[in-house]
Write a structure and sequence with these properties.
The complex is a heterodimer of chains A (about 350) and B (about 260). Chain A has one domain: ABC transporter involved in vitamin B12 uptake, BtuC, CATH 1.10.3470. Chain A has helices spanning about 5-25, 35-45, 55-90, 105-115, 120-150, 155-180, 185-195, 200-220, 220-225, 230-235, 240-265, 270-280, 285-310, 320-335. In chain A, helix 3 packs parallel to helix 8 (about 200-220) and helix 3 crosses helix 12 (about 270-280). Chain A has about 350 residues and is an all-alpha fold. By secondary structure, chain B is an alpha/beta fold. Chain B is about 30% helix and about 25% strand. Chain B is built from nine helices and twelve strands. Chain B has helices spanning about 45-50, 75-80, 95-100, 115-130, 145-160, 175-190, 205-210, 225-230, 235-240; strands at about 5-15, 20-30, 35-40, 60-65, 70, 80-85, 165, 195-200, 210-215, 220-225, 245-250, 255-260. Chain B has a six-stranded mixed sheet with strand order 6-7-8-3-9-10, with helices on both faces. Chain B has a four-stranded antiparallel sheet with strand order 2-1-4-5, with helices on one face. In chain B, strands 11-12 form a two-stranded antiparallel ribbon. In chain B, strand 9 and strand 10 form a beta hairpin. In chain B, helix 4 packs across helix 5 and helix 5 (about 145-160) packs parallel to helix 6. The longest helix of chain B has 18 residues, at about 175-190. The chains are: A mainly alpha (about 350), B alpha/beta (about 260).
């Protein structure tokens, strides 16, 4: 087995990420070239007191519209990919993404309840939304896991099947709440499909603390994630408190998903595509799988959102539609390729 | 024989899904001994091993290691006292053998901590003891069954425990690999003073290698003694069936089992 040159991979991913950000900043209703992008960004830094002759409209497009949207897409991609890799580690199932085990649907339900029922408290919900989303997500995953674990034949299939059932129920409840409380459901349905068209700096700032905390905690578990790829009893025999570890990881994975869902709605397949691409290219060691997946998730979602907002311009496609177009063929590829390759 | 024991089991009874799998078992294991656990399939060998290592909680009875009762040990603390090579360890995909052996250092590492050079040193030393140091960077799927088993034994050794449990370490291996593994285990007992308890199918190999043999039948210990005491034709036939016969070999006047039909 060849040794990974991990520094080279980190560098490669970060360069691609920066290129994606610049590319995404420049395309849209008007094309803005990199030197103007840099000048617009400089005006946002007060200590520079930078004066420029580029029009205010360009500065607003870059600093207030495109940049927060791109950062939000990147952070959400980062979070979902991390969450996907984590769920795959816990359940030792390559198909366990936050979408398939009910986390995303539950989070959407939690967020919807807050939006529709306590909706008028606008100032409140910007910060309370991730929390409500998290509670919804934890409850949904909890029910999924309880159903799967009370089955006599606990395996990946029971987990995925119960996840689909719980997710469907949560989705139905979400639709019911939306339709029964608000006649004009289009903005919320757009949100549910997954989209960044309501991005702003507030959303970026509100999710950052959640992301930092859960990412740091999760990075601490990378070595243990490798160990739990053996079996529960083998992990216990080398001293891993398997129950506690799984609970913590489920909570962190769900937190990441729900934070993402609270600002962007349900965006499927990133949690599947990013970790698997990393596995195919760079192997199975969670020490690297976790950070590489997160960076790749950020890149994927920034690019997918850029495609979504430009391909049918002036119409905008929700980013969830783009990730499905990319993700479904990938999903089918994984199924056809067979499970032999995964975890022996 | 000195009377200090490294592992003392007193009146252990265990249930698995309402079935009694171990019935009032008591056992004294002396330090630095090679103990063979024999019995027919389903007699309770694996249950006994998994009770000692903490995977199964006994309904009654107590376990003591070096006179300390194993009551409320955390998984980590227990993993510093007892290492186990299970019957079919997971052939983890995509990890090097060194990665896998290093997982044996987990009891000494906190959650966010990576193995130090000292840990890697210990892992390398274990791999040398079982003769797999050259596979350090290879993956398991490129190894033979015997080589894999030696990697898993190295992982157990890396836990740095006094007691090593092995569940059928030589099942499904070619004869030469079986002997190789038994030689390695014997050298661990002699050179590293590790106490080994191994569930074994092959009674002849067990009797040739082990200081002490524990015969378990229907969840109870029916005999516990030296191989000379165990290898009694009537007793062995009683437990393992009357198709067996004994023949004396000119090494220490030992008995070994042969099929009655070809005697």
């Amino acid at each position: 087995m060849q040794q990974l040159n991990t520094y080279r991979i980190y560098t490669l991913l970060i360069v691609i990420l920066l290129v994606s950000i610049v590319l995404s900043l420049s395309i849209g209703s008007v094309i803005i070239y990199p030197h103007d992008i840099i000048r617009s960004l400089l005006t946002a830094i007060p200590i520079f007191n930078y004066q420029t002759d580029i029009p205010d409209s360009v500065i607003i497009i870059i600093n207030q519209i495109r940049l927060p949207r791109i950062l939000l897409a990147g952070l959400v991609g980062f979070a979902i990919a991390l969450s996907g890799a984590t769920f795959q580690a816990i359940f030792k199932n390559p198909l366990a993404d936050p979408y398939l085990i009910g986390a995303a649907s539950g989070s959407a339900l939690g967020a919807t309840i807050v939006l529709m029922i306590i909706g008028p408290m606008v100032l409140l919900h910007i910060s309370i939304l991730p929390l409500a989303s998290f509670i919804g997500g934890v409850l949904a995953v909890g029910v999924t896991v309880i159903i799967a674990f009370s089955s006599r034949s606990l395996n990946s299939n029971t987990l995925i099947l119960s996840g689909i059932a719980v997710g469907a129920l949560a989705n139905a409840l979400t639709s019911f709440i939306i339709i029964s409380t608000n006649p004009d459901v289009r903005p919320l349905l757009g949100w549910l499909l997954g989209s960044f068209n309501t991005s702003n700096w507030d959303k970026v700032l509100v999710i950052i603390p959640y992301l930092i905390i859960s990412t740091i905690l999760l990075f601490n578990f990378r070595r243990v994630m490798n160990i739990i790829q053996s079996s529960d009893s083998e992990a216990k025999l080398v001293g891993v408190d398997i129950k506690k570890t799984k609970y913590i990881l489920i909570i962190l994975g769900t937190l990441l998903t729900s934070v993402a869902v609270s600002v962007s709605g349900i965006i499927g397949f990133v949690g599947l595509v990013a970790p698997h691409t990393v596995r195919l290219l760079w192997g199975y060691d969670y020490r690297y799988l976790i950070p590489f997946s997160a960076l790749l998730g950020a890149i994927l979602l920034i690019l997918a959102d850029s495609i979504g907002r430009t391909i049918l311009y002036p119409q905008e496609l929700p980013v969830g539609v783009i990730t499905a177009f990319i993700g479904v063929p990938f999903f089918i590829f994984l199924i056809v390729r067979g499970r032999r390759t995964f975890y022996g | 024989m000195d009377n200090k024991s490294v592992l003392k089991i007193t009146d252990i009874t265990c249930y698995l899904d309402d079935t009694k799998v171990l019935d009032n078992i008591s056992l004294d294991i002396k330090p630095g001994t090679f103990n063979g656990l024999i019995g027919v399939n389903g007699s309770g060998k694996t249950s006994l091993i998994n009770t000692i290592n903490g995977l199964i909680k006994p309904a009654f009875g107590s376990l003591e290691i070096d006179d300390f009762r194993l009551n409320n040990y955390s998984d980590k603390d227990l993993a510093k006292l007892i290492a186990t090579v299970p019957q079919n360890p997971t052939k983890m995909f995509g990890f090097s053998c060194l990665d896998i052996v290093l997982m044996g250092r987990n009891p000494y590492l906190s959650t966010g901590e990576w193995p130090s050079n000292n840990d890697i040193e210990i892992a390398n030393h274990s791999m040398k003891s079982t003769g797999v140091e050259m596979f350090s960077q290879r993956t398991l799927d490129s190894l033979s069954g015997g080589e894999m088993q030696r990697v898993f034994i190295a992982k157990g050794l890396t836990q740095g425990t006094k007691i090593l449990l092995l569940d059928e370490p030589i099942a499904n291996l070619d004869l030469s690999y079986q002997i190789q593994i038994m030689d390695i285990l014997l050298s661990l007992v002699k050179d590293r003073k590790i106490t080994i308890i191994a569930a074994l199918h092959d009674i002849n190999l067990a009797s040739l290698y082990c200081n002490n043999i524990i015969v378990i039948d229907k969840g109870s210990i029916v005999k516990n003694g030296s191989s000379k005491e165990i290898m009694e034709q009537d007793f062995i036939r009683n437990i393992f069936g009357d198709r067996l016969s004994m023949i004396r070999i000119p090494i220490d006047n030992r008995n070994i089992i042969i099929p009655k039909s070809i005697k």
